[in-house]
């Protein structure tokens, strides 16, 4: 419980500082999936689910307060769909990151690679679930279609690739490297104490 409490505190601190959400040049880049992935790996999938909820709740709060112009626009269009994009997607990401980590750990003889794979999947799944739900809920809205028009009226798959290209190039390697190193170090420290 103490470790989960600390991870929730990390998420909350990150969410209210530039460490968690970067809003720049029209892009919303988040590193909030890193502590969710770390928690899912060192505590377990249920912790990933809970931490994913906290991440999603802070994202929904950004939409409510207008801290993210993109999320605020989604909120203006449909608050329920915005909720679906923000919260269940992050919960599923946290839980699945923990499950993938446990699966890979069983076959990882080095007991190291699994942490980097878990870190990568935290960001990858966050992107896949967020964008998937965004397309399901908002693809036919004027808001998304106007963005798509600026990208050249792409099909949904190419739209996702263009829309998250820069984000993915920043988020996935960061989550893989930082999440992998921190998770491995924390896991070692926890096992030494036992």
TrEMBL record:
<feature type="transmembrane region" description="Helical">
    <location>
        <begin position="114"/>
        <end position="136"/>
    </location>
</feature>
<keyword id="KW-1133">Transmembrane helix</keyword>
<feature type="transmembrane region" description="Helical">
    <location>
        <begin position="50"/>
        <end position="74"/>
    </location>
</feature>
<keyword id="KW-0472">Membrane</keyword>
<keyword id="KW-0812">Transmembrane</keyword>
<protein>
    <submittedName>
        <fullName>ECF transporter S component</fullName>
    </submittedName>
</protein>
<dbReference type="Pfam" id="PF12822">
    <property type="entry name" value="ECF_trnsprt"/>
</dbReference>
<feature type="transmembrane region" description="Helical">
    <location>
        <begin position="80"/>
        <end position="102"/>
    </location>
</feature>
<feature type="transmembrane region" description="Helical">
    <location>
        <begin position="156"/>
        <end position="183"/>
    </location>
</feature>
<dbReference type="InterPro" id="IPR024529">
    <property type="entry name" value="ECF_trnsprt_substrate-spec"/>
</dbReference>
């Amino acid at each position: 419980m103490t470790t989960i409490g600390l991870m929730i505190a990390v998420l909350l601190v990150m969410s209210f500082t530039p460490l968690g959400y970067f809003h720049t040049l029209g892009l919303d880049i988040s590193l909030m999936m890193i502590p969710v992935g770390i928690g899912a790996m060192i505590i377990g999938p249920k912790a990933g689910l809970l931490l994913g909820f906290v991440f999603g709740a802070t994202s929904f709060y950004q939409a409510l307060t207008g801290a993210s112009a993109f999320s605020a626009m989604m909120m203006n269009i449909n608050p329920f769909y915005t909720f679906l994009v923000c919260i269940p997607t992050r919960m599923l990401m946290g839980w699945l990151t923990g499950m993938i980590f446990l699966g890979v750990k069983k076959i990882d003889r080095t007991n190291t690679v699994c942490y980097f794979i878990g870190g990568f999947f935290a960001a990858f799944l966050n992107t896949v679930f967020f964008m998937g739900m965004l397309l399901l809920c908002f693809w036919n809205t004027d808001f998304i279609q106007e963005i798509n028009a600026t990208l050249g009226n792409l099909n949904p798959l190419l739209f996702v690739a263009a829309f998250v290209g820069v984000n993915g190039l920043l988020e996935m390697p960061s989550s893989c490297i930082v999440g992998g190193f921190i998770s491995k170090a924390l896991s070692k420290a926890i096992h030494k104490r036992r």
